[in-house]
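Q: Please design a sequence for this.
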């Protein structure tokens, strides 16, 4: 089971990431673009996915880990139950979300390193 501290540690390890509240909860941004946030419940994380098909694939294949609400209908993001993922999966989810939201200049910078 991962914690808010794990989310913070992993998210802030990604390049050009800062933490700033989003809807009153911890939000993580790459160059001021939100890529993840902890929801009000405290044990649920919002991350971005490539599209609605990816979201539905996650939700239908592993509903104990991933879910959505009507608020997120049509939005390329999925809700993650922190108690159902380990740090390795959290790292993959946050990194993928970060890559989807990072500006091209940041991604190019990584390719040249």
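A: Design:
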């Amino acid at each position: 089971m991962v914690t808010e501290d794990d989310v913070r540690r992993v998210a802030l390890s990604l390049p050009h990431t800062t933490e700033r509240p989003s809807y009153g909860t911890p939000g993580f941004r790459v160059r001021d673009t939100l890529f993840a946030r902890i929801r009000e419940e405290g044990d649920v994380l919002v991350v971005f996915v490539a599209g609605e098909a990816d979201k539905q694939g996650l939700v239908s294949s592993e509903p104990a880990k991933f879910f959505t609400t009507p608020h997120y209908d049509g939005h390329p993001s999925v809700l993650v139950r922190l108690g159902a993922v380990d740090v390795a999966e959290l790292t993959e989810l946050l990194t993928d979300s970060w890559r989807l939201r990072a500006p091209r200049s940041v991604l190019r910078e990584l390719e040249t390193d």
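Q: Thanks. Anything notable?
A: The domain at 4-104 is CATH 3.90.1150.30 (Aspartate Aminotransferase, domain 1). DSSP finds four helices and six strands in the chain.
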